[in-house]
C-alpha cells in the first residue's frame, strides 16, 4: 500500500537550482520539506525567508542522521554528486539528483547498482521529460503518428553562463540527450556519437559544440549547443516517414506543430520504362496540426513523480539508468571531441550488462523501510 504520510525531504544546495526545488517541494502535498542544506547557511536562510518551519544546516551528516528525512534532492556541482548520492543511498535515503548524474560512467554505474541493491529510488531531474510538450512528442512517436523517425535536428543556444566546472556539452546537451532517450521508440537506441567543439573566447573549455548521434536504425540525430549566441533558440525538429514534429520551446502559442509534409518514395516496380529516368520522389504538402497542451510546471511534475516512485516502490520515469545512459553518451562525445570528431561507439563497455527494472520487487521496498528504521536508530555542497 502506498504511504499516505508526506515523505520527509531535504534539499541539498541553495544555489542556482536549489531554490526551485525548495519551492516545488513545498507545493507538492506528498512531500514535506524538512531541511535545506548548504555550506553557506546564511544563503540557505535567505532562500527560505524568515517565516518557515524548515530547518537549515551546513552539515550534510545532520540531514542523513535525521529519521524524518526519507529522501534528498541534490542540486550541487556535478563533481560532488557521486559522494553525496552514495552517502544518501548508504544512509537509506531515496535520491533525486540534478543532471548529469555524475561526471563519469564508472561512478554513475556504481550508484545505479547501489540503488538497485538497496531497493531505493534513484531519480535524475531530467526536467524537460516532464514538460507537456515532450510528453506529447513521446505520445506522437510511440503512437506511430509520425511513422519511422528519419532525422532529428535540435538547437539549444543562448548567451549563457560559462560554467566553471563543465563545458557546453556537459551543461546543455544532457537536456537534448535525455529528451531523445525518453521519446525514442522502444528498441531504438543511441549507439555512437561524433562531436566537434570550439572555445573562441579562451574560456579553457568548449563554449560551442555540434554533436551527431547515430541511432540503432541508422538514422542520425544532430544537436547544436552554444553559450555564445546573442539570440536564444530552443527548437527541435523530428522528421518521420509520415509527419514531422517541430517543437519551439520559446513559442507559448504554438510550442508544437505537426506537419503532414514530406517526401514519398514511389517503388521502382510501379513505374514503366519511360518513367524510370524521372525521380522516384514526390513531395507531399498537407495540413499542419497544432495540439493543445496543458499548462503544467515541469518541475512540479518531477517532484510528484519522485514522491510517487517512493510511495509505490517503483523506479522513476527518469531513473538512474536513464541518467547513466546520458552520461555514457556525454563521455563518448568528450572522447570524440578530443580526438578531432571521430565517431565513437556508446554501446558495449560503456554500460553495465544489467540496468534496474522499472518496478522494484516488493522485497526491496520492505528492505528499504528496514534500512530507514536502522538509520533512525543510530561533503557538503557548493
What this model shows, in words?
This protein has 382 residues and is an alpha/beta fold. The chain has helices at residues 18-26, 41-48, 60-65, 81-90, 105-118, 132-142, 168-183, 298-312, 320-338, 362-377; strands spanning 7-12, 31-37, 55-57, 71-74, 94-97, 122-124, 149-159, 190-198, 208-215, 220-226, 228-240, 244-248, 256-265, 281-289, 344-345. The strands form two sheets. A nine-stranded mixed β-sheet has the order 14-13-12-11-7-10-9-8-15. Strands 3-2-1-4-5-6 form a six-stranded parallel β-sheet, sandwiched between helices. Strand 2 (31-37), helix 2 and strand 3 (55-57) form a beta-alpha-beta unit. Helix 4 packs parallel to helix 5, helix 5 runs antiparallel to helix 9 and helix 7 (168-183) crosses helix 9 (320-338).
